[in-house]
Amino acid sequence: MSEETVSPCLEVTRTVADSGGKDMHKCMQCGLCAGLCPWRSVESPFSLRQVVHQLQLGVEGFESDDILFGCTQCRMCENNCPRGVATSAVVRAARAVLYQSGALPRTVSAALGNVRVEGNPMSGNRDARLDWTKKLDQPLAVEGDTAMFSCCVSSFDPRGQKSHRALTDVLRAVEPKISGFGPELSCCGGTLRAVGADDLFSELSEANRKVFEARGLKTLVVDSPHVYDSLLHDYFGEDQPPPFQIKHYTEFLAERLASGTLQMKTPFPKKVTYHDPCYLGKINNVFEPPRQLLRAVPGLELVEMPRNRFESLCCGGGGGRMWMETPADRRFGVLRVKEALATGAEVIATSCPYCVSMFEDGRIVLEAEEKIQVMDLSEIVRAAL
Ligand code: SF4
Ligand code: SF4
């Protein structure tokens, strides 16, 4: 019987630890993370426990697209790890080391290339950043201290643009002077951080901070949980609070609902289930504002999927996966649409452009276009105004 030998390379362990992954040393290899990970629900070679072990030992095997770059950074493991291992930081650190050596997955490299040149990962032209506004009833102002951040998916993807126009109508109904940004604003950089492109993130976030500063912002309403997470945690440093309010649109609208400024009077008589986006819910604890809004829609029946709030199943689009190919039988978005269908819901609602994109794909894969609709929450509120 032959015994396989491994050659540890402590240099790898040290480099990953020095890049922000030193929490790997706290791991006791219990395997809870691997059991809770959404990849357990599909055929996949990915196991976070194994990745962390390989990093601890400094042995090869973690580098491939479907291993290290499989993690969607959904935070299910980190929220439940008995040793409090900051798993997302460990994964990001290992990716940062690969990024330094130019070994990112091909499609992620292409997206990063477009961010470098055009300020977005969507193959869009920088000058077309405001093209989505052409179908608005009135042009969008690009000055004013209350503004909305339109993420790259909302600005360039046709489905994202559609729900973003609904959000703009809703925001204008409660805040008539709300403004936007033109080509001077770039991608929030959330994906760059997630895949370890820290130098590019610093460059981009610095440029965006200058845009915010020049505007004299008081409140920034963001459409995407990825933008929200990035701005809250990576733009201003942990001990330096942001110089203006940052609100996800569901928080902003729930406040306006409570104050009576947002009124929904048109019935929306459908059975709706709500999917918690990981970067809004599991990572930033915003669970109730979206539900408060849905409960206030006349005629709407809200039903929960068994996995909700902290147990919510990831859509599969975070952590850079939005820019990677996943075979149809491994897509979490397909599983999530199945879970939504099992509740009898006619609509799966969410509040993230990535999730909308993943679920639109999921219902096509399942040939369920006639059975269930995918809606951003802003589209439901728009219909109920
Ligand atoms: S749950 Fe935490 S301690 Fe357990 S294997 Fe995963 S990272 Fe290690
Ligand atoms: S963050 Fe999510 S996808 Fe990544 S290893 Fe943890 S549970 Fe799995």
Structural class: alpha/beta
Q: Low-confidence stretches at least 5 residues in length (pLDDT < 50)?
A: none
- Percent of residues in β-strands: 5-15%
The Cα radius of gyration reads 21 Å
Q: Helical content, roughly? A: 40-55%
Describe the main β-sheet briefly: 4 strands, parallel
Silhouette: globular
Bound molecules: iron/sulfur cluster
- Compressed to H and E, one letter per element, the order equals HHHHHHEHHHHEHEHEHEHEHEH
Strand order, sheet with most strands: 5-4-6-7
Mean pLDDT reading? 95
Number of helices: 16
Give the beta-strand count: 7
Span of the ends, CA to CA: 72 Å
Total separate domains: 3
Short description:
With 385 residues, the chain is α/β, with parallel strands linked by helices.
Helix-strand layout with pairing:
Layout: H1 10-21, H2 32-36, H3 48-57, H4 76-80, H5 87-100, H6 106-118, E1 146-149, H7 152-156, H8 158-174, H9 190-194, H10 198-215, E2 219-222, H11 225-234, E3 245-248, H12 249-259, E4 271-274, H13 288-295, E5 301-303, H14 332-342, E6 347-350, H15 353-365, E7 373-376, H16 377-384
Parallel strand pairs: 1-2, 2-3, 4-5, 4-6, 6-7
The structure holds iron/sulfur cluster (SF4) (2 copies).
The site of one iron/sulfur cluster has 15 residues, from α2, α4 and α5.
